[in-house]
Amino acid sequence: MRILVVGAGAMGCLFAARLQKVGHDVTLLETLRERVEEINRKGVRVEGVSGKYKAGVPAFSTPLSTPPDLVLICVKAYDTLSAAKGIQETVGPQTRVLSLQNGLGNLEILSEVLGPDKVLGGVTAEGATVLGQGRIRHAGQGETIIQDGPFSESIISAFTDAGFRSRADKNIGIYIWGKLVVNVGINALAALTRLRNGRLPEKEGSRTIMRQAVAEALEVCNSLKIPLPYPDPLGKVMQVCRDTADNVASMLQDVLKKRRTEISFINGAIVQEGKRLGIPTPVNAVLTSVVSVIEESYSESLF
User: Fold this and answer.
1) What domain range is 71 assigned to?
2) Residue 222's pLDDT band (boundaries 50, 70, 90)?
3) Same domain, 10 and 127
4) Which H helix or E strand runs over 130?
5) Are residues 17 and 137 in the same domain?
6) Nearest to residue 186, comparing CAs of 231, 88, 253, 112?
7) How far, in Å, CA of 235 to CA of 243, rounded?
8) Which of 76, 179, 257, 258 is catalytic?
9) What is the 3-state secondary structure (H, E, C) of 230-253?
10) What is the mean predicted confidence (pLDDT) over 94-102?
11) What is the CATH number of the domain that holds 60?
């Protein structure tokens, strides 16, 4: 299968390396030229729970002219629109575009630009941390679920061959919301406390905030009549923390590197939905505001 992975961050590099190693024709599309140059010099280097290995995945800053069979969108949610426009001329009639992103709104943006018939939703519970340009640590393994459809069988086959535990489901929306609730409980807290995932449930203060943030998200889900794919949301968040104990949450990675975060697409999305539905979400509002202030004041930080 010819696969284009858009975004050479932790998740993009993980999927690109694993898929390339089992024989798929994989390329990376990345806007940061220094990252492209480093990957082309040294390859994608992975260490962690899946072992230590290197994959010679070619990287480019502009898309190739040959339409891929599959495009994996692994960029941050705030870059979805620019990514979609960037690959618009590359996506062919038979190309399918799969989002493996955090937050809400990605599928709608991709569908508007590329056409709803080409776009598939997906979620992954794989955990990875960026160690350098093109170098990542595979910090935790989990299930990858994609939207069921005519093309999903070949994607699942490719993912399974690459060692990803994968399946398809027609009701992908409940899994996107399910992952959102997990991220609501973990990402902002990790960014503010600077703790690895596994430490968050062990601290009374972070555990309390986690419980309150998740409860607000659950109230929004209940109002929207969205059934989550697990019976105990708080228990699920804590289990994910344990399963990815050594992982540095993506939002914490962003804060440590003084980059823009996805806060408005995660906790901020709960706040916006709460406002629309008339549901108070004070804890998520505070988490969103504090992370936003950190983001806006990187240049003023004392350390």
Assistant:
1) 2-170
2) very high
3) yes
4) strand 127-132
5) yes
6) 253
7) 12
8) 179
9) CCCHHHHHHHHHHHCCCCCCHHHH
10) 96
11) 3.40.50.720
Q: How far is CA 263 from the centre of its chain?
A: 13
3-state helix, strand, coil in the chain (%, to 5): 50, 20, 35
Tell me the pLDDT of the chain averaged across its residues: 95
Secondary structure class of 59 (helix, strand, coil): strand
- The DSSP code for 186 is H
Copy the structure tokens of residue 159: 């993912």
Residues 197/245, Cβ–Cβ less than 8 Å: yes
> Amino acid identity, residue 190?
A
Q: Which two tokens stand for residue 146?
A: 């994609």
In a domain, 302, yes or no: no
Query: By CB neighbour count within 10 A (0-12 exposed, 13-18 middle, 19+ buried), where does 257 fall?
Result: exposed
179 is known as an active-site residue: yes
pLDDT at 245: 87
Burial (Cβ within 10 Å: 0-12, 13-18, ≥19) of residue 45? buried
